[in-house]
Amino acid sequence: MLKKILNYFTKFEIALWLCSITAITASFLIFDRTGWLKLAASLIGITALIFNAKGNPVGQILIIIFSVLYGIISYSFAYYGEMITYMGMSAPMALLAFISWIRNPYNGNRSEVKVNRIKRGEVVFMLLLTVAVTVAFYFILEKFGTANIVPSTISVTTSFIAVYLTFRRSEFYALAYSANDLILIILWIMAAMSDISYMSVIICFAIFLINDLYGFISWRKMRKRQTAPDTQDT
Q1: CA of 185: how far to CAs of 107, 201, 205, 216, 234, in Å?
Q2: Which of 71, 107, 193, 220 is the most buried (most CB within 10 A)?
C-alpha cells in the first residue's frame, strides 16, 4: 500500500506534503499546544489539497471533514461567517464536487477527474450568483454580529467562487482558493492580536496558499495532457 502511494505522488508532491505537515505541526507546538482540533483540521486540510492537486475525488471527502472542523474552530472566535460558509456551503459543495468528479473520470481513471473548461456565459452566471450570495451573506453575518465583517464577507465571495469552480472541474478553482487563503490569513492575523495561539492557523493558511498555487499549476498540466491530440477521449 505504501509503495503504491509513493508511486502515485511525485517526489515533489511528497516533499511538499511532508514540509507542509512539519511546518503546521511545528507552529502548533510553538504557538498553541492546546487546540488539538486546529492541528487535526490543518493536517486533514493539507492532505486534502495534495489529493485535489492530482484531481483525485478523495480530496473532496477530506475537504468535507476539514470544513466541519474549521467551522467549529471559527465558532470559537465568533467568526460566524467562516462557520456558516464552511459548514453550510463548503461542506455541501464538496459533496457535490465529489459526485461530479466521480462521474467525470478521465479515460475511466477514477483517481483523476476530467478537467472542464467553462464558457464565458457560465462565467457571467457564476459572477451574478456570487454577487447574490455575497449580499445575502452580508446581512446574515451582520445579524449574527460577526467579528471583522468586511473581510469575513469577502471570504464568502472567494469561497463561493472556489467551490463553484471545483464543482465544475475548472483548474481556476485553485486560484480562487488562493485568494481565499489570503483573506483568511488577514482574518486570523486579527484574531491572533488577541490570542497568540491563532498564529498556528495563520501559518496553516499560508501553507495552504502555497499548496493551492501548486494545485493550479498541476491542473494546468493535467488539462494540457488530457487535451493533447494523442490522449483525447475517443
Answers
A1: 38, 8, 6, 19, 45
A2: 71
Angle, nearest 10°, between helix axes 36-53 and 11-31?
A: 160
Distance from C-alpha of 112 to C-alpha of 197, rounded to nearest angstrom = 37
Alpha carbons 130 and 140: distance in angstroms, whole number: 15
Cβ(59)–Cβ(51) below 8 Å: yes
Residue 164 confidence (pLDDT): 96
Grid coordinates in use for 166? 471545483
Contact indicator for 43, 24 with CB cutoff of 8 Å: yes
Beta carbons within 10 angstroms of residue 37's beta carbon: 13
Which residue type occupies 35?
G
Question: In DSSP terms, which residues pair with 113 in a beta bridge?
Answer: 105
Which DSSP string corresponds to 154-209?
HHHHHHHHHHHHHHTT-TTHHHHHHHHHHHHHHHHHHHHTT-GGGHHHHHHHHHHH
- Tell me the C-alpha distance between 189 and 105, whole Å: 39
C-alpha cell, 210 = 502555497
Residue 178 to residue 184: CA distance in whole angstroms = 10
| Tens-digit pLDDT profile for residues 115-146 | 999 999 999 999 999 999 999 989 988 888 77
In the chain, % helix, strand, coil (3-state, to 5) comes to 80, 5, 20
- Encode pLDDT of 103-119 as tens digits: 999 999 989 999 999 99
First to last CA, the chain: 32
